[in-house]
Amino acid sequence: xxxxxxxxxxxxxxxxxxxxxxxxxxxxxxxxxxxxxxxxxxxxxxxxxxxxxxxxxxxxxxxxxxxxxxxxxxxxxxxxxxxxxxxxxxxxxxxxxxxxxxxxxxxxxxxxxxxxxxxxxxxxxxxxxxxxxxxxxxxxxxxxxxxxxxxxxxxxxxxxxxxxxxxxxxxxxxxxxxxxxxxxxxxxxxxxxxxxxxxxxxxxxxxxxxxxxxxxxxxxxxxxxxxxxxxxxxxxxxxxxxxxxxxxxxxxxxxxxxxxxxxxxxxxxxxxxxxxxxxxxxxxxxxxxxxxxxxxxxxxxxxxxxxxxxxxxxxxxxxxxxxxxxxxxxxxxxxxxxxxxxxxxxxxxxxxxxxxxxxxxxxxxxxxxxxxxxxxxxxxxxxxxxxxxxxxxxxxxxxxxxxxxxxxxxxxxxxxxxxxxxxxxxxxxxxxxxxxxxxxxxxxxxxxxx
Length: 450
Ligand code: 5GP
Ligand code: SF4
Ligand code: MG
Prior knowledge:
Number of helices: 16
Radius of gyration: 22 Å
Number of strands: 23
Largest sheet: 7 strands, antiparallel
Bound molecules: guanosine-5'-monophosphate, iron/sulfur cluster, magnesium ion
CATH topology of the largest domain: Glutamine Phosphoribosylpyrophosphate, subunit 1, domain 1
Strand content: 25-35%
Strand order of the largest sheet: 3-2-4-1-10-9-11
Distance between the termini: 24 Å
C-alpha cells in the first residue's frame, strides 16, 4: 500500500490526488482521500485506480488544508469496500481518519481482545485495529497513539488525521518507508519520496523507526515511542516494490538496483554473451548496472505494454497468468541469434520467468543466461508485501539447477543475502530469503508451513 498526507497546504485533497498518482504502483485495488478544513472531516474512497475513483466532482467537495490518502494492495483482509482506506472513526471527541501501509502480525489476538471488550469491526483488515486501539487509550491524542503503537507488532507506517493535526508513525524496525517534506508553508508525508518531485517538496526527512511525528499548531515535533531496534527496511522495497526515483532511508532505489546488477556481473567474470536485457520495468536498473560492470551492451529486447497493470499485484493466480501473457513482447531483430544475459529482479512463483524465457526463445535467442537481482525467495512475507504461501514460492521447493531447468534457461544465478546486504549500510529485512523474521510472528507462525 501507499500512504500520503498533507498538512497545512491549500487544496490539500488535490495535492493528495497527485501524491497518490505517484504512489499508484504500490496498490491498485482501492484508494481514498480524507480531508479536514479544521472543523469537519470529509472523505471519498472506492475500489479501483485513482483515476477511476476520483473525478472532478468528489475532489471539489473535499475542501480543506489537511488531508490523508491511501492506495490499497490487499495482503491481510480481502478486497472489500469496507477495507478501503482512509478509515474513519467518529465519536463525541471528534473524528479521526487513518491510512496504513504494512501488516500487523499480532492482529488476531488484538482484534479478539477488542471484540471481547465491545468493539464492533466494519471490515476484515488488520488496519482497522489501529483506530479501535486508539479510541480505547487515555490521555492526549499523542499519548493514545503512543500507547497504541506500543501494542502493535509487525510492519506499519500509518497516518492519523484529526480535524487539525496529523501524526505519522513508523514501526520500530522501519520495515516500511515513510518520510515528509516541506511543501509551500506546510508539509507532505509520503510512503515514497518520488511524490515530492511532483509537488515541489523540499528538505526531505525520514520518519525514524519507532518514531511518531506530530504535525500540529503549524509545527513538526518528533517523539520516540519505543527504543531503537535493529533497523530492517524491507529489502523488497529496494528490489521490486518502490519506484526507482525514490530514496528509502536516504538510499536511491535505482542506484541500489544498479549496484545489485554490478554484483551479479562481478560473479560472472569471463561469461560470453552478446547483450544484456532487463525485464521491464523493475529490472532495467539492475540490467544497466550489469551492463556497465561487465562491458556487455544493454539492449531493449523486451517491450512492455504499459496499459496492462502489474501482474503480481493482481489478487488471483488466474488474473496474474493472463496479465503476464498480455504484458511483454520480445523484439526479434534484437534477440535473434544472440547470447543473452537476462536480468530480472526476483522469482516468486516462476511463472513470469518461464514465460519470458519462452518468449525470447520463440524470438530466436541462442542462449539465455538468467540472473536474478535478489536471493531466492523461500519464505513468505508477513509484513505487507505479498500473500504467497511457501507452497507457491517455487524457490522453496527447487534447487537452483531444478529451477533453471523449470524455466528452460541455459544458466541461472541469484544474488546472495550477503551481497544484498553489502549494497546499503542501513539494515535490511531479508526474511523472505533466509527466514530471519525481525519480529515474533504470532498469528502467522503456523502459516510458515502452508
Ligand atoms: P515470477 O517469475 O515469480 O512469476 O515473477 C517474478 C516477477 O514478478 C518479477 O519480474 C517481478 O518484477 C514481478 N513481481 C511483481 N510483483 C512482485 C512482488 O510483489 N514481489 C516480487 N518479488 N516480485 C514481483
Ligand atoms: Fe520485505 Fe521480504 Fe521482509 Fe517481507 S519478508 S518485509 S518482502 S524483505
Ligand atoms: Mg518484473
